[in-house]
């Protein structure tokens, strides 16, 4: 299965950086979104990112020009899908919307095209049937910031073919990522389950007044060697996303421990979503 052309659906935080990773990997890449504004914002961010990499000497001008040249944008899903060997869907985390997208892709994408979802919460078996090609469907889960984080969780569902897993794994390697294979559709896969456990402990320690959020973060960085403390990381991921992941996990497991933590619910209700809203556990400027 040769993959040369990739369509990334959704120009949000994840989709735009996944698309740029694909272009840097030498793939002809289309970034598709229903919003012109989101596409324009994505282009501006990616051009800025590439320029700063060139300025730092970490990317040559030629590599930057080549990647930005391979990356085009579109608001038209059907015509973009018709050109794709692999689709990576990174749209909003709503089952009904993903079902619609996968049904459209089933019609519009070439018969050989693999349809992957970046979803961290929805197992691909939920949307595979809508596509009419379940053997070509899996999760391909990237991490934020996707241009930096190496891991890609490749999650197979019961119908995913070995050829699909192999092809998606090969793409992740060509993006200079580190693919890991998740053999069972467990809620949260590997990374979000471990992150959920750390977050839960950190939130409980803060809620019990054991230590300040600053000191809990400092401990994670300086005692455990984590690059960021759990509160800094939740602010980066987005507290609405943390809330959504916990809720989705709870709905699957029914375990009280997986329920969104009261401190997260409080922040989300106050509109404090982390970096993207200017305030979460910490304030952010600009
Ligand atoms: N976009 C693109 N590049 C970024 C970036 C961003 N948002 N943030 C940082 N970078 C780049 C910088 O440009 C810099 O590149 P360089 O080394 O080539 O100059 C490099 O990352 C390091 O950045 P900084 O020096 O500014 O800061 P740090 O050394 O603290 O690194 C970090 C920042 C990479 C975000 C690091 O703190 C980190 O790894 N944090 C943990 C992130 C993490 O755990 N992510 C997973 C979240 S869970 C998830 O995504 C799952 C989902 O389902 C919710």
Automatic annotation (TrEMBL):
One Gene Ontology biological process: fatty acid metabolic process
SUPFAM superfamilies from the UniProt entry: 6-phosphogluconate dehydrogenase C-terminal domain-like, NAD(P)-binding Rossmann-fold domains
Pathway, according to UniProt? Lipid metabolism; butanoate metabolism
Important for catalytic activity, annotated site positions: 141
Q: Name one GO molecular function term.
A: NAD+ binding
Keyword Oxidoreductase on entry: yes
Q: Which residues bind NAD(+)?
A: 10-15, 33, 93, 98, 120, 144, 276
Taking the record's annotation, the residue ranges forming a coiled coil are none
**What's the name of the protein?**
3-hydroxyacyl-CoA dehydrogenase
Q: Organism source for this protein?
A: Glutamicibacter soli
Q: What is the lineage of its organism?
A: Bacteria, Bacillati, Actinomycetota, Actinomycetes, Micrococcales
